[in-house]
């Protein structure tokens, strides 16, 4: 027991952190090699009280949307990196995202929740902390709020986004699959050190999403459709739901850059998927289990 490596998980009760802990504890090889230390902002939560252990390898995630303050997120990330440097962490797995401003040559400069994580990644590397980057794709769970019945008959479920129907989106089941990718990064440290692991099941055309929903949900999904909408209509939906203007602009640019430049900069998923020893969740499998569409009673 004493020679086990220690693995610290930040955000241990969230979708990403919880998935990591479950995967490590359920895998005999990973459980034999690592002991867990769970870090959470609310130790009073029942699931938080059940999590204990110690750390050396670190999985870290920040939450931009909690305060919608990219400077705060940047400072939080730097604090984590500085501590890792001070204590000699052997492998920091940073949950990052692509630098959209850099990728788009400044065309979309307001996607703060991507850029801040990318800037933290750069900082981690600049101070010499041994690290690799886990880059999650587009959350499948987002579809539970994005796909809703149309207000006009026949009230078919509609996915309305400011992008062409052919736009490829790399979908990812954060709650189910984060642990699959991070566990692979833990066990294959030498392969991933200094590299970026793209976490997604596959690229799906935007228009194919409601088609898959219809195939899986049949009666509920009958006639499900994709609709391309313009910038102002999309932003209007968001501000109408109470989102600040700057955040609505940020999410619009988030959608716009995906079509023109690619969520992952148009990189292939092949190498990242080759690291896994478990299959990631398909979009059809997600729809079959998603809480919104599988309520009892």
Please characterize this protein's 3D structure:
With 297 residues, this protein is of the alpha/beta class. The protein is 45% helix and 18% strand. The strands form 3 sheets. Strands 2-1-3-4-5-10 form a 6-stranded parallel beta sheet, with helices on both faces. Strands 6-9-11 form a 3-stranded mixed beta sheet. A 3-stranded mixed beta sheet has the order 7-8-12. A hairpin with a 7-residue loop joins strand 7 and strand 8. Helix 1 packs across helix 9. The longest helix has 18 residues. It starts with a strand and ends in an 8-residue tail after the last helix. About 2% of the residues have low confidence.
Specify the number of helices. 15
Strand content: 15-25%
**Biggest sheet, strands in spatial order?**
2-1-3-4-5-10
| Amino-to-carboxy terminus distance | 47 Å
Oligomer: single chain
Structural class: alpha/beta
Topology:
Elements: E1 5-10, H1 15-26, H2 28-33, E2 34-39, H3 46-49, E3 57-60, H4 64-67, H5 70-87, E4 92-95, H6 100-103, H7 112-126, E5 131-136, E6 138-139, H8 143-146, E7 147-149, E8 157-161, E9 168-172, H9 174-187, H10 189-192, E10 196-199, E11 202-205, H11 208-217, E12 225-228, H12 231-240, H13 245-261, H14 270-274, H15 283-289
Parallel strand pairs: 1-2, 1-3, 3-4, 4-5, 5-10, 6-9, 8-12
Antiparallel strand pairs: 7-8, 9-11
